Structure formats: structure tokens, C-alpha cells
Amino acid sequence: MNQTLNEQLLDFIHRSPSMFHAIASIRAELDAAGYMPLLETEAWHIERDGKYYTVRNGSSLIAFQVGRDTQNCSFRIAAAHSDSPVYKIKAAPELKGPEEMLRLNVEAYGGMIDSTWLDRPLSVAGRVLIRNGDAVETRLFCTDRDVVLIPNLAIHFNRDVNKGYAFNRQTDLCPLFSAGKLKEGDFDAMVAGQLGIDPKNLLAKDLFLANRQKGCVWGAAGEFISSPRLDDLQCAFSALRGFLAGERENGVNVFCCFDNEEVGSNTRQGAMSTFLKDCLKRISGCLGLNSEEYARAVASSFLLSADNAHAVHPNHPEKTDAENRCFLNRGIVIKENAAQKYTTDAVSRAIVREICEMSGEPYQLFANRSDMAGGSTLGNLSNIQVSLHAADVGLPQLAMHSSYETAGAEDTASAVNVFRAYYRADLCIENDDKFVLRPSAGLKGEKS
Ligand code: CO
Predict the structure, then answer these.
(1) For residue 351, how far is its CA from the centre of ligand 1 (angstroms)?
(2) How far is CA 353 from CA 333, 349, 426, in A?
């Protein structure tokens, strides 16, 4: 059973070489489950017992399932992110030389481990804007083969490379595009050719390098799963599956996948944008909630911010806290930070614990070493626009921001069960001090 789910996860990630493709992969699952697309630019008509989603910028998505009953309405939200650290190709894509060679001109999107991108064939993926008559249209683009590679410098030219080497992103990381057969302009010609359009109708591009290496389950005992973009597509996939299995009778279930987490979320479609607030307000308006009822709904709502966590590294256990640390294959991680980079507090931790116990799945607690700044994520940033009870969770993984990351083969299934329990549970937040949490009928003991 786990194997099948892992294969589905790896397939989902393989179909998602850019944030735009990740949203397309999520849309495909929502379409298959009968969710209706809504455009932000059009009037919304939302019915009780209906299922909908909307997309901003092609790279962020919010799906919601409205219960039959919206008396004492609240929102049950989970949010993950669609983007991963990667190199973006600049608008003028080619660097000429030396001699007849062509390289691509790239810059970093987010904080990747540079060395993991070298010496591996890479493809190009993202979106392009094309002219079609008097309209300008967006098309997804992904080369169907590997087209570039960033070659390392031979050790003979860089004798100290094994003592640690700082890659210069302007000079060391330019992908090789041609040894001489292609000429300047052929990158855009390749893109236009694959799309079957005249290159003069190619107006603009948001294109990124992509590692097409397929993910796999590995290990003598099949304990590991490795793939590009596990951060954060593993959480996006798990939360989505839980959402699709978690229909609720009362209130509104919401699934979010935001772009731009890796560059700070402060964009039109990022977690710091008004996207979630705009959606919740529109849903409330369509359901006939007045502003007083909307404020009450938000006050009794909950957000699970889902982004992968650092598992104890086998060669560097000293990098994690001695006790508040997590391991592969021991289930979902509840993250905490005194400075509130993670939203978890005692109230939300208690709720997540109860949900994990209700689902029959294990959970782990994570906090950074007190002498090390950890990463940040989208939960506290999302709370700037819509302030909710919230907790930060994630799945344990190794080598975060490598172009090929590793996680536990058992954790995805466990997370799906937790998200499903979350979306199904009867959670009533009466005030800041008291909540009531009951499993929905038939939940206990059920497994995905
Ligand atoms: Co992440």
C-alpha cells in the first residue's frame, strides 16, 4: 500500500518540474475529484456541498470544499508550497563563448546547495507568454529531454575543491547549452519550436532549470525515498490527498499551495499576499455570512502550515537539538520556535497532538538548536494577512535544498492519514482557551 502511494508521489513530483507544473498536477487531481475551477476575475457562485478551486498566477492554488451545513462556519486550512530552490534563466538567455560555445545565463531562485546541480543533465521548465492573434496567452513549457548541464571544473584545475569551494554564481554555474552546433537565438527557437509557434510570437518567459532524474524508493529494506523537490511537494501531495479524502459536513475545508516560499513569500501569489484572505472573504460573502459572522468564522478556524523538516543527519547528529529532533519514518513533525518563526504554540500543539492520536499515527517534535537560526516557512507569514490559530508541521527529510532530496518511505502515508483526520475531525474552537475535538464517525482505525 505504501509503495503504491510512494509511486503516486514520485509520479506527481515528476509531472511537476516547475511551480507552474506543480499547480497543473494539483489541478488534475482536483478536476478528477469533481472540483470546479473559479476565476478570480469572474463572479463566484458557491453552493453548500460544493467543491471549488481557484488559481493565482498559475503558481498558487486554493481549493475548498463547502459542507452541507455552514451554521457557525469555520475554515479548516492546510497550506504547503509549490516552489523549490532552482536556477532561473534570465530574459536574454544565452552567454556567448568561449569560441563557438553557448551557455545559459541563470540566477538563483532560493537557497539551493549549488554543488548538487553540477554534472547532471538538466531540462528546462516553466511558463511562456505567447501572442495568439490579438490575445496573449500563457503556456506551460517543459523540454521533453535534458538540454543543459553545469560541468564541474576538473580537479587538476581546482586542486583544493575537496577542502570546500564557494561557487561563484555568475561564473561557475552557467549551464552548457551548445558546443558549437547552436547559435545565438537558438534557445528561444528551441522553445518556440517545441510549442509549434513562430519565435516572434514568443513574448516572455519564466523558465527554470529542472532535474528530471526520477525519484525512487531505495534501501536494502526499502526504507528511503529520494527525489527532486520533496520540499515541499511531499507535503503538498500529502495534504492534498488528505483534503480529497476529508470531506466535512459542517464548515469549509481549504487546501492551499503557495508559490514563492523559497524567496520569502512576499509576492502577489505568495503566502504573504492577500490570496487566502480574498478567497475566504469571497467564500463567506457567497455563503451569505456578514462581516460579524466572518470574523467569528476566522476566530474559530485553524491553519496547518506544512513544510518539510530537517531529520537527524546520520553523519551530523550534532546539528540538531538533543531531544527536540526528528527521524525518518517516525511520522509527521510538529515544529516549534520560541521566536514564532513557526506558528505552533501550546494551543495548536495540543490540537495537532489530538489529531495525530485520533488518526493512530505517530508524531515527532522539532525545535532548532538554541545556538542556530533555523529556516522559516509560510505559516507565520500567512498569518499576517489572515490571523488564525495555526501550527507548523512537516515531514522529516535529509539534504533539504539539494537537487535530489531524501525522506522516509513510510512517512507520506502517515501524513495523508493525519491530514485526512484533520479535515474530517469535528473541531470546535470555542475561544482561545477551550476547544472540543471529536473524530468524525468511522474515522478511528481507518487507513489510507
Ligand atoms: Co519548504
Answers:
(1) 23
(2) 10, 6, 15
Calculate how far, in angstroms, residue 27's C-alpha sits from the geometric centre of ligand 1.
20
pLDDT at 72: 86
Q: Are 409 and 329 in contact (CB under 8 A)?
A: yes
What average pLDDT does this structure show over 190-219? 97
What are the extents of the domains in the chain?
A: 2-84+228-438, 86-210
Question: Which CATH homologous superfamily contains domain 86-210?
Answer: Aminopeptidase i, Domain 2 (2.30.250.10)
Is the pLDDT at 442 greater than 70, yes or no?
Answer: no
Question: Would you give the end-to-end CA distance of the chain in angstroms?
Answer: 8
pTM strictly above 0.90: yes
Phi, psi for residue 22 in degrees, rounded to 5: -60, -40
What would you measure as the largest C-alpha separation in the chain, in angstroms? Answer: 72
Check: CB of residue 399 under 8 Å from CB of residue 406.
yes
Q: Report strand pairing: 86-96 vs 36-38.
A: unpaired
The rounded Å distance from CA 231 to ligand 1 centre is: 5
